[in-house]
Design goal:
Mean pLDDT: 93
Shape: globular
Order of helices and strands: EHHEHEHEHEHEEHHEHEHEHEHEEHH
Number of domains: 2
Number of helices: 14
Radius of gyration: 21 Å
Number of strands: 13
Strand content: 15-25%
Distance between the termini: 55 Å
Helix content: 25-40%
CATH superfamily of the largest domain: Glycogen Phosphorylase B
CATH topology of the largest domain: Rossmann fold
Length: 358
């Protein structure tokens, strides 16, 4: 009988959201086990990105902090001691592939922690890399790659809505209602997230401002989603919006932000955590991607999304700053095209709402 499961999942907000179906799969496979996640905790953060997203969903019951960026013997010994004290029966390897050497090093460490069974470690090239999908002309998503790694546990059911269920509590839904409160835009609103932690993904404030200007609709609201350090840019971009603006940057938690996104008619933004949150709650997105990753790997999951991806010959570079090509992949994306796609999506939503009202 499996009594304790340790899930190894590193990464950011978006990394956690794309792994949601796998967390559900692990919960189904080990419903009676105590499930903890081994994950990184950003400096000065109150919680891990994983717990920020999963919250009180019951998909995990706690966490063990992974000391990212250090290989000091004393730190690793303390981590080993903490893991051995938890005494997991199973380790689920659910983190992004970081190279074959790193994977085998991880396996050796977890064996030294006396974990008898390891599931999901991508020890083959096929499991470590996304597969190319010739019919679609893109690569499989990171979600699909992770699901393949955990195939021994069953079907992750990526296209079922319940696989993306964040299991919001009544208290969280009440918090979201308080956030929206008497905001005049609550009936009809868009949501945007124009910040990014990686310069090579940044489409630019000017492009976002032109896009927002082109989408202005009388009486519609605009919700700003993002972290506190993205607030100044978001407010500057939104200054041209003629309707009510709700600034949630650095204010709302990821789970409350997800509930606000659930009520939005459309989300616009970069390849980012909020974009994945919007897709997870079923809100259509219009997303602007750089070509730093292969097309498809980090696209929003599900139908109804529009992705702008300019596949330059340097695609898949994984750069954080693009100097030599001056972000050619992004400069080739026009605000006019993004505006047209967003308008079409909004028009469709309005028609559907009108039909339901008849």
């Amino acid at each position: 009988m499996v009594r304790r499961v340790l899930i190894f999942r590193m990464g950011s907000l978006g990394d956690t959201v794309v792994s949601l179906p796998c967390f559900h799969l692990v919960a189904r496979a080990f419903p009676d086990a105590e499930r903890r996640v081994l994950t990184n905790v950003p400096v000065a953060a109150k919680a891990t990105p994983v717990l920020d997203v999963l919250g009180a969903s019951g998909l995990v019951h706690g966490h063990i902090r992974y000391p990212q960026g250090t290989r000091g013997a004393a730190v690793l010994y303390a981590l080993r001691r903490e893991i051995r004290a938890f005494a997991p029966d199973v380790l689920v390897y659910l983190t992004e592939a970081r190279g074959r050497a790193a994977i085998w090093r991880d396996i050796a460490f977890f064996r030294a922690c006396a974990i008898p069974k390891i599931i999901g470690a991508p020890t083959s090239e096929d499991l470590a890399e996304p597969r190319y999908l010739p019919k679609e002309g893109r690569w499989e998503s990171e979600t699909a790659r992770l699901a393949r790694c955990l195939a021994s546990l069953g079907d992750a059911a990526l296209d079922r809505r319940e696989s993306w269920d964040l299991r919001f509590t009544a208290e969280e839904r009440a918090d979201a209602r308080r956030v929206l409160g008497s905001w005049p835009g609550a009936g009809h609103y868009l949501a945007i997230g124009v910040g990014t932690k990686i310069d090579a993904k940044d489409w630019g404030a000017e492009n976002w401002t032109r896009t927002i200007q082109g989408l202005a609709r009388p009486g519609w609201g605009l919700a700003l989603i993002g972290s506190a350090d993205e607030g100044e840019r978001a407010r500057a971009v939104a200054s041209c919006w003629p309707g009510p603006v709700l600034d949630l940057t650095g204010v709302a938690s990821p789970r409350v932000s997800a509930l606000v996104l659930e009520g939005a008619r459309l989300y616009l933004g970069h390849d980012s955590g909020p974009m994945h949150l919007a897709a997870a709650v079923g809100t259509p997105t219009v997303a602007v991607f750089s070509a730093r990753n292969k097309p498809g790997v980090w696209f929003p999951h599900g139908a109804g999304h529009v992705v702008f991806y300019n596949k330059t010959d340097c695609f898949g570079c994984e750069l954080t700053v693009c100097v030599e090509r001056a972000k050619e992949c992004l400069t080739g994306i026009s605000p006019d095209g993004v505006i047209a796609a967003a308008r079409a999506r909004l028009d469709a939503a309005e028609r559907a709402e009108s039909d339901r009202a008849r």
